[in-house]
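Hey, quick one: can you model this chain's 3D structure?
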Amino acid sequence: MSTQSPAEPLAPGVHAFDSDGVTQRYHVYGSGPVCLAHPGGPGIGWEYLRTPELEKHLTMVYVEALGTGESGRLPTHPNGYTRERYSIALQRIIDHLGVPKVYLLGHSHGAFVAAYHAIHRPAGLAGIILYEGAPVTGPEHGAEAARRLQEFAAAHADRPGLNDVLATFAAMQDISTDEQTLAVARGVLPSYIADYWGDERRWAPVRDALRASYISGLDAIGSPDLVDDRADLPKVTVPALVIVGLFDVICGPRWGRELHELIPGSRLVVLEHSGHLGHLEEPERFTDAVRDFARSPRSTSPTNKGEPMSSRLHGKTALITGSTSNIGRATALAFAAEGAHVIVSGRDRSRGDAVVAHIRGAGGQADFIAADLDGSLAASRALAAAATEQLGGHIDILVNNAGIFPPGSTLTTDEETFDRVYAVNVKAAFFLTQAVVPGMISRGDGVVINLGSWVARLSLPVGALYASTKGAIETLTRAWSSEFGSQGIRVNAISPGVIVTPEQDTGTDPLGVLMHGTPAGRTGHPDAIAAAAVYLASDDAAFVHGTVIDVDGGRTGVAVVKDAV
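Sure thing. Here's the predicted structure for all 565 residues.
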């Protein structure tokens, strides 16, 4: 079906109109909020990007990019197809559609175009979806792609078709015709799918259906149209969703994380079983991510109090140790209220079951796993394995909260007590992190939150043993951030102040004497720590690494002056 009618620019079918003297074609499917989809390449035909599942929720406008298919070619073809020129073409389509706001989805090179459009022409955008993009091209991007290609080759060394894929990559720099461009696009496709050869019958038709035209990547006078948006992306004002496949060779998780960290308030979705074509490899999860983003940056679901449940941790999984009471319990409730599937862990099954019942009654997801973290490697590994299985194969967030506070002073502490406190407070967290982090590294994404204490830095005449364990935890936080940060893992800590149990009154608690003269002037509640944990676990803290956040009413950061005039 085709239409030329300017009165029905969003009617289903094929549309064409004059765009600054060049024919611009686009294809409309579905219903709902309008979302333009710009294909990759440059020069790849739009058809591969079609996503029927998404069309159930959005009016998808698939752009037939200038220079491809039956859209017109520039007088300078194959040169001149810069991001600026593509952005102008997109703006002409948006104006032609006549809707106040549209979403803009760009895949691969199309993501570079979408980012450019959001930087320079944001007015008509409701949001952007940067799907398999990067903030930069050129030597740095090429070196990362070469490294990822080596990893791909090592993982598929036994595949007979590997040499053909590698030879195609080597020939990529010499293409100069439509035929060569198509041959390269089809030849490299096995590296664009996470497991192409594992189901070649499924993916071979996708490869054979590709269409492509030669676009040089040079501007009208023959200079490369290089990309470096790092200085501009922090200025982006439109909502942004970043989607990346864990096994993408060309625009992999490193670039997805960097885009996410550069764009204020953006959301990041890592497709754990996908390469460069996640909309085909994991269509349901891809659709859910885009649909939820287009509906609202915050989805809601009912709680038992009739209040909206937020979604900062929607789709995430979390293991929280020592979560049957106090700070751990408050953190579990808060994580579940933000959409996470939570593992409640501790020694007391009755209290654990009660926390789980509370979460489920509020419409959340939770399960209890009994664990006595005695500091042994075996205990930590057992909990990690059980939680991973219960959470569907992966742990996104680990909160090392379990700990004990021994009575006595340095002079009264015996060796057994010393070893027990260090085993629970330090060794258990160390070995549990050791057991959980490899899974996070394999996905290129994860969060570890440790619980320190204000007494690690502001000493009291009692509790030296406990304080030293919390000092060790804060040191491990910085060390782990350095060790794992480059692999996509954020490690931070919270240093609680004087916190009372939920049953106590923060204004009358006897420990309140320790807060006299502080800015807060009172003890704190576990919910304050839980709120900080939600922040550190969420995408809001995407640029926070190796930090200890003091949630202590000003106890350690401000000089305590009692009865000041």
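One thing worth noting: The CA atoms of residues 213 and 265 lie 36 Å apart.
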